[in-house]
Amino acid sequence: MPTRFSRHVAGCAVLAVSALATMQAAHAIETGRIDARAVWQERSLSACRSEQSQTAPDVCLLRTMQRSGARPQAIAAARMLVKANKAGFISAWRPLGKAALATVTYPFRANTNEGSLLIGSDGAAIDVDEDAVREEDRATAAWRAFAAAHPDAVPFAPADFVGNTATADGGQRLLFSTPLKSCHACADDGALLVAYTLDKAGVVRERQLLTIK
User: What is the pLDDT of residues 5-34, one digit of tens each?
Assistant: First the structure.
């Protein structure tokens, strides 16, 4: 039986679509096979943030994780994030069928210190916060109208996971909402509703901008 949420999704016009190859080339991080064991409960990283530190922050992070007894999976995931120039660690894990949503903490960033990675069954991790408004999105009439009304509004990470629906071929569609506003303390001017479609094996195949609300 369709839920109110699924009826809303079905009724949304698809504004922009990103093909798998393009999306993964620009937004995927190869993490390898990871699971909930990749989560690390943060220890103090104040020494890594100090200007007197003798090592780079990312190196200090990995050493701190090793010394605190972090699991090998957690260290491996952090290494992959460092390799992608996104120094951080996985701080939470949420199973989503054959995929998962990993919360990433970026301890050395000045403002947005959390992000979300959608991890498919193939190990590809899609950064759902990076370039939240893409070129194909900006070309839509909906975005142009929103931008004209709110010229200073930008996406503020992290995106919120707001729902999950099944697809006709046995896959699933995961939906994320990202607030649009002009500053951290400002009220929301709107939100992007984006869907990621996974096939029945749990591999991310498509990104769709459903609506700007």
Answer: 444 444 444 445 554 444 554 456 655 677
Q: How far apart are CA 161 and CA 137, in angstroms?
A: 19
Domain of 27? 4-212
Give the tens place of pLDDT for each residue, 137-187.
Answer: 999 899 999 999 999 999 999 999 999 999 999 999 999 999 999 998 999
Total domains present in the chain: 1
Q: Are 21 and 210 in contact (CB under 8 A)?
A: no
With 0-12 CB in 10 A as exposed, 13-18 as middle and 19+ as buried, what is 47?
middle
Residue 117 CA: distances (Å) to CA of 160, 170, 190: 11, 22, 22
